[in-house]
Specification:
The protein is built from 13 helices and 14 strands. The chain starts with 6 loop residues before the first helix and ends with a helix. The chain is globular, with a radius of gyration of 20 Å. By secondary structure, it is of the alpha/beta class. It folds into two domains: 249 residues, NAD(P)-binding Rossmann-like Domain (Rossmann fold), CATH 3.40.50; 77 residues, TATA-Binding Protein. Strand 5 and strand 6 form a beta hairpin. The strands form two sheets. An eight-stranded mixed β-sheet has the order 3-2-1-4-5-6-7-8, sandwiched between helices. It has a six-stranded antiparallel β-sheet with strand order 9-10-14-13-12-11, covered by helices on one side.
Amino acid sequence: MLLGKYSRQMLFQPVGAEGQQKLLASKTVIVGCGALGTAQANALVRAGVGVLRIIDRDYVEESNLQRQALFDEGDAAQRLPKAVAAERKLRAINSDVRVEGVVADLESRNAEDLLRGFDLILDGTDNFETRYLMNDAAVKLGIPWIYGAVVGSYGSTMTILPGKTACLRCVFPDPPQGPHESCDTAGVIGPAVAWVAAIQTAEAMKLLLGRTNELHQSLQSFDVWTNRLERIHPRLNPDCPACGQHDLAFLRQAVSHYARLCGRDAVQVRPPHPVKLDLEQLRRRLERLGSVRGNDFLLNCALDPYELTIFSDGRAIVKGTGDPAVARGVYAKYVGS
């Protein structure tokens, strides 16, 4: 393997030739391939991480292109799953890296299998349900993970070393309740994404290089519009339900069959049990009802006033409603109960 592509990075003393070999031998998993996930993946593949797994449940839409840097209009037109589109782009960027796109929703019944064996987990998600699940899995498996969130012009990030630093539940014992800002209500701008992803990937490189003494050791938040920077230094809490008491409730939690999607008038419906759909057979049935587009991974069908996107693993995204009961009815009618 030629290392010339990393020459400028290797000139940076904390990396060097030895550090570059460590990166090439490392394994990282990114959960969520939206704005943060695409920026993280792009940076780490170019840096030469050895193995990168990308887990994402969604597909590319035109509204993503403003901030999700790996995708283009062709991906949106084909409605490619984000994990698939990202894998294709990243493999073309650096053939040294083994990139694996996984089209799946991280949930309690698959989290440990999807995350086990990696050196690091990066948060590219858009919801606290998945973050609390990641936190429990990371604590159980002993894998460092890096939290990140963005809304509007504001972003925050924290690096978590299970058993050594505060975990997510040390800082936020319970998921947010009641109304709170999201990209659905406040929007999101690219520079805020870039700031959070840059901090996350810098921390990732420090961890993969074994330079943990150089981590920022804080919950950092920054508003790129108002220029307000905040840092707090949370402490490991011995009474924390997750890392203190090892009560990993989110790993034990029954799988929720419905999830509202951030920034969209849409609900994801999960089947009660893992399935493998015959998309071609389903296409023939749906074509009697409306226009159907698709690829090897999903079908998209316009069923006025809804739009239904069905994945081969049985999941579906029902667009045109934020009501889980309505989404459930649409799913049952066109896919089955």
